[in-house]
Predict the structure.
Amino acid sequence: KAKPKTAKPKVARPITDDGPVSLFVDAVREHDFPCKDALDGWKKTRLVTLMLAWLLGVPPTPTGRKALARLFEEVGAELSERDRSGVASARALLERAARGSVAEKNRAAFDLAGMRDEAILAQRPALASFVDALAHAAEASASHADGDHETPLRRGIEVGRALLYTLAEHRAGDGEDREVRAEVSGELAAKLRAALPGGPA
């Protein structure tokens, strides 16, 4: 006779099970700034983190893959119906970059940048913001696959900093925002360098 299953209490799990991705995601999680626009804030920072680590060759764990899929769904749910088809197209390009050669990764980055520019011209800023993050990730992946491990690390840090600057400005007044930004971006830069492939042991 099978024992009745008891419901397990829900515990906050890290986005990835282990390894470099979780280190950086945890670092980002420590700085959970409130932000009106989810795509300019916390969710986009998590998305960029996952994409960069995934595209730079960190083996994705099942939890990481689910988290990435969930974030795409959450982003799509917040956009207009017209923008959702753009998210689906952008995701297909990202998948192509993940699987492809250096040339294919570069092509995907180029196509994503074109999609971003089209979204800007069509005055669809939320979609443009989202696709811009994917273009940066694909470009970093191409550089890394071509043997340049330093540039993707710098690019990841730059993208993370740019996003965190936006978040810090929401949180801090004019007088202290520079200090907040410097503190947050400095900590994240150090953790990103240490966590991703090619960084110090």
Notes: The chain has one domain: 36-195. The helical segments are 20-29, 42-55, 62-78, 81-99, 102-121, 125-145, 150-171, 177-195. The CA atoms of residues 168 and 174 lie 10 Å apart. Residues 8-42, 163-177, 195-201 have pLDDT under 50 and may be disordered.
